[in-house]
Fold this sequence. Notes:
This protein has nine helices and 16 strands. The chain is an alpha+beta fold.
Amino acid sequence: MHKGLVLVVDDEAPIRDILSFYLKRAGYQVLLAENGRQALEEMAKLQPDLIISDLRMPEIAGDEFCQIVKGDPATRDIYFVLVSAMDGSASRIGGLNLGADDMIAKPFHAQEVMAKVASAFRIIQMQKEIKRQNQILTRFQERMTAELSLAAKLQMGLLPEAPGEVSCLRYYHRYLPAEGIGGDIYAISTALDGGVAIMIADVSGHGVTAALISAMVKTSFSNQIQLSSNPREWAEGMNLDLVNNTLEEQFATAFLGHFDPEANLLRYVVAGHEPPFRIPVGAAPEALKGKGFMLGIDASLPFMELSAPFEPGDRIILYTDGLVEVEREDREYLGNDGLMSYCAQLPSDGEAAVEQLLEQARAFHSPNPFVDDVTLVLLDRAR
């Protein structure tokens, strides 16, 4: 089995013959050429692993030949050794500046050349292995990118189409995962008693694991609202599901709400989540009360149900903490109060209002980007 292919380029036949003899004896395949032009013709037939070329030759000299080889993307990785009668560091530096990988001074000893060749092929093999590993990594990255893109599309499919309408509520949203796919999720659908079931949740962590758990949270919520119309019971059931089906360090914050249009009442549970803002008609925004335990920590944790009016014309803003917890250069945060202040002057159009809030948060954080998953949901109660 041949160790590799070496192209020897020299206008002196004795030198070509000597190098060819030693290279073949060492187990290498050998191609011979008198100058750079002939060498390029040989390379068009078969590409070598290593080129040993004299510097001074007729037609295409070694320096020009080296520049041609190193300037072509198809051949630039070929290991190139220049042979020159000019000795000294200046000559060596000049050859390396041309793109050569190494230099050999004339007159040379055959043993020196063979040592250089052996060293070159060790480097060549390492380069080939690196290239092979890079190709494997590239294919893996391409596959992962495609799978993450598909997973992101599937996750987006779990979100309600927005803008949308359930009963007398019109809703709008923006979802910005930090890594293309994330752990935020929200849902709005008809409850068991004909009211409206509302959920927004933020799973700990980022990426695929968080996305998988967010899908579990959505499924658990969908199951719970088929069993009762009580947000506290939803929280208890979802908490048990997460405790039984996730690792100890995984949890989720959530806001769970049940809206009764006839009573103009929103009953809700705050499970470690940011309390939403209610914007009454003609009044200042206010944060809903409530602060409870996160889901998935302990199966025995209690949850408290609270209530707030939700009158015709009112608006509710739900969000995850990624929207407000970005540290600026001056170490300031927008925070819940900062976001609530922006809610005081929103356009009546829900789509425009969501976009304005998002842009105001971006402007406050600038130039720093969002670093966590961001979800923003606006609910408008029809008059």
